[in-house]
Amino acid sequence: MRPLDGSGSRSKEKKPADGRLQARLRISPGLPTILVGSYSLEYPHSICLVQSLMTVAGWRYRRDFHDAWTFEKLRYGTMTAENLAKRLFRNPSLVPDVINGVSSHKSSMRFACAKALRILSNEKPEMPYPEFDHFVELLGSTNNIIKWNVIDVLANLTVIDDEKRFEPIFDKYCGLPRDTIMITAAHVIDNSPTIAKSKPSLANRITAALLEVEQLQRHSPECRNILIGKAIVAFDGYFEQIEGKDKVMSFVKRQMSNSRNATRAKAHRFLERRVLPNLERVKKEGEDA
C-alpha cells in the first residue's frame, strides 16, 4: 500500500479515537478508491479483497460495506430514491440515517431520502413509524419538496397509528391548506381520504376542513378551483365515513357551475356516482310497491 500523499512518508490524517480504522469511499476521475486509515487501495477486483478490507476496517458484515456504499452514492447523486427504498426494506436499521439524510446540505441526497421514506411509508408503514416525531418536526421544513413528502408520509402512518400520535398534530396538519403554496394544500387534500378511513373519529373534522376550501383566499380563482376539484375527489374517497352528507352534496352541486372545466367534470362524476344510483334504487322500490 502506498501513502495518500504520494511521498515516502505516511499521511498525517488522524485515525479514529477508538483506534479502529474506518473505510470511506471516494469517487475520483479514475477508479473508485477505498481509503483505509491513511492508505489508499485501488477498488478491489475480487471478493477476497473486499472481505479483507471489511475485516481491516472492523466491519463484521458485508451489509455494512454496502450501506456505506449506498450513502456515498447518495452523496454523489447516483442512487435513486426507488433503489434506496429497496435498501430500506432489506435493512430497517438504516431508517434513522435516511431521516438524517433529509437534512443534508446536498439537494440530491435530501430529495432521494425524502422520497424513499415516502415509498417506505406507503408499502411498509410499520418500519418508519417509530420515527413519527421526527416526521412531525420535518412538517415545519422550509423546503417545500421535503414538506410535501412528509405530508404524504404522515398520512400513510395513520394506517397503523394505534398509539394515536396523529391526533395531537391534526390541527397543524389540516391547517396547511391555508398555506400560500398551492401544492402544499393539494397534498393535504389528496391525503384526506387515507386519514379519514384510518381514523373515522376525525372524519367530521376533515370534512369541515375540506368544505372551507371553497372560501380559501388563493393567488387566483383558478388555484382555488383546482383545490375544490381535489376536495370533490377526496369526499368521494371516504364518502361512507361522512356523516354530514347533505353539506357535501350541496358543496358538490354548486361546482356544477364552476368556471373550471375539470372541476365541473369532477362534480358531474361525483353526482353520477353518488346520486343517480340512489335515484334508480328509489324508482325501482316505487315500481315494486
Which sequence of SSEs, written as H and E, runs from N to C? EEEEHHHHHHHHHHHHHH
Class computed from helices, strands and strand pairing: mainly alpha
Largest sheet: 4 strands, antiparallel
Overall mean pLDDT = 78
Please count the helical segments.
14
Q: Radius of gyration, rounded?
A: 26 Å
If strands are numbered along the chain, what order do they take across the biggest sheet?
A: 1-4-3-2
Unreliable residue runs: 1-54, 56-65
Helical fraction? 55-70%
Classify the beta-strand content into a percent band: under 5%
The global form is elongated
* Number of separate strands: 4
**Whole-Å distance between the termini?**
95 Å
Report on the structure:
This protein is mostly helical. The protein has a domain at 1-60. The chain has 14 helices and 4 strands. The chain has a 4-stranded antiparallel beta sheet. β3 and β4 (39-42) form a beta hairpin. α6 (132-138) runs antiparallel to α7 and α7 (144-157) runs parallel beside α9 (182-198). The protein is elongated and about 55 Å long. It starts with a strand and ends with a helix.
Write a concise keyword list for the protein shown above.
289 residues; 4-stranded antiparallel sheet; mainly alpha; elongated; 4 strands; single chain
Indicate the topology.
Elements lengths: L1 E2 L19 E4 L6 E4 L2 E4 L4 H10 L5 H14 L5 H10 L4 H7 L5 H17 L8 H7 L5 H14 L12 H5 L7 H17 L4 H9 L9 H17 L7 H10 L6 H14 L1 H13 L1
Antiparallel strand pairs: 1-4, 2-3, 3-4
Helix pairs in contact: 3-5, 4-5, 5-7, 6-7, 7-9, 9-10, 9-11, 11-13
